[in-house]
Design a protein that fits this description.
- By secondary structure, the chain is α/β, with parallel strands linked by helices.
- It has 2 domains: 202 residues, 2-enoyl-CoA Hydratase, Chain A, domain 1, CATH 3.90.226.10; 48 residues, no CATH class.
- It is 45% helix and 16% strand.
- It has 10 helices and 10 strands.
- Strands 1-2-3-5-7-10 form a 6-stranded mixed β-sheet, sandwiched between helices. A 4-stranded mixed β-sheet has the order 4-6-8-9.
- 39% of the residues are buried.
- The structure holds ligand T3D.
- Ligand T3D binds next to helix 2 and strand 6.
């Protein structure tokens, strides 16, 4: 039987995906990539899912690439062909980052422990990062002679500005969750004791919100990074035309007028 490297759980519209290689701090092997891609695809096409939570089992969130995975091990033969690390990034990390960033529902990274290398940047790809106070973020790439991948070079300067991005990426120091929140790298760090209840509460709020508009909000904010102000305004207008003709807008306004809670269903 296939080892379950990604655990899948459902609770009232929230799909929780738990990376499950705790002995290696949930670092990525080819198999775990395959299972996570399948789980994200299934969540994207399941109309009952209105929020995805990504977390890790054991004491870590994800330590990035499993450096012991034979698929990526450096070729130590003198004169041997070097392992094509970029091919691994193209094949696995790029599609993963794009998948998370284009999910039709909000994605929360519930960072339960250390998030290093591509594991840190996978968390940063998510719409919202909630971390345990004891968790930490490490741009570990420079320590092993690589550049940040899984979106790190794009995400870091946009989240914390160039000076902090360069410092984090070049030094590869461990950034405690509290400092990550202070810098604006993540949404929130919460005390370990309330971490799970806080994640559940935020995810349940997301479930009740207009999912389609939330996914469009993410896409619009990302698109605006490449647009001038006028083009961003035009893009907003085009999106409002689309969303304004959808069920959730009619429901949202009707609920407001009737002073009742809205029941959103678009996705
Ligand atoms: O193909 C490619 O390589 C391209 C893709 C690149 C993307 C990347 O993510 S590159 C960056 C890869 N990640 C790292 O360099 C992080 C390596 N890990 C660490 O630096 C440390 O483990 C941490 C700082 C994350 C945590 O430190 P600590 O002291 O809390 O735990 P530990 O003792 O180092 O790790 C616990 C176990 O997990 C240990 O195994 P053991 O000794 O108990 O049998 C350790 O070897 C294992 N582990 C942790 N990270 C990885 C790993 N095993 C394989 N790969 C890992 N990335």
């Amino acid at each position: 039987m296939e080892e379950q490297l990604v655990l899948v759980g459902d609770e009232a519209g929230v799909r929780t995906l738990t990376l499950n290689r705790p002995k290696s701090l949930n670092s990525f092997t080819t198999e775990m990539h395959g299972q996570l891609a399948a789980a994200l695809g299934a969540a994207a096409s399941d109309a009952a899912v209105r929020c995805v939570v990504l977390t890790g089992s054991g004491r870590g969130f994800c330590a990035g690439q499993d450096l012991a995975d034979p698929a990526v091990a450096p070729n130590l033969e003198p004169g041997g062909t070097p392992t094509d690390v970029g091919a691994t990034v193209e094949r696995f990390y790029k599609p993963l980052a794009l998948r998370v960033r284009t999910m039709p529902v909000p994605v929360i990274a519930a960072v339960n422990g250390v998030a290093a290398g591509a594991g840190a940047n996978l968390a940063l790809c998510c719409d919202m990062v909630i971390a345990r106070r004891s968790a930490s973020f490490i741009q570990a790439f420079a320590r092993i002679g690589l550049v940040p991948d899984c979106g790190g070079t794009w995400l870091l300067p946009r989240l914390v500005g160039r000076a902090q991005a360069i410092g984090l990426a070049m030094l590869g120091d461990k950034l405690p969750a509290e400092d990550a929140e202070r810098l604006g790298l993540i949404w929130k760090c919460v005390d370990d004791l309330v971490f799970e209840s806080e994640v559940r509460a935020v995810a349940q709020r997301m479930v009740a919100m207009p999912t389609r508009a939330l996914a469009a909000t993410r896409a619009a904010i990302d698109a605006a990074q490449q647009l001038d102000f006028g083009a961003a305004l035009s893009h907003e207008a085009a999106l409002q035309t689309e969303l304004g003709a959808a069920h959730d807008y009619l429901e949202g306004v009707a609920a407001f007028m009737a002073k009742r809670p809205p029941v959103f269903s678009d996705r």
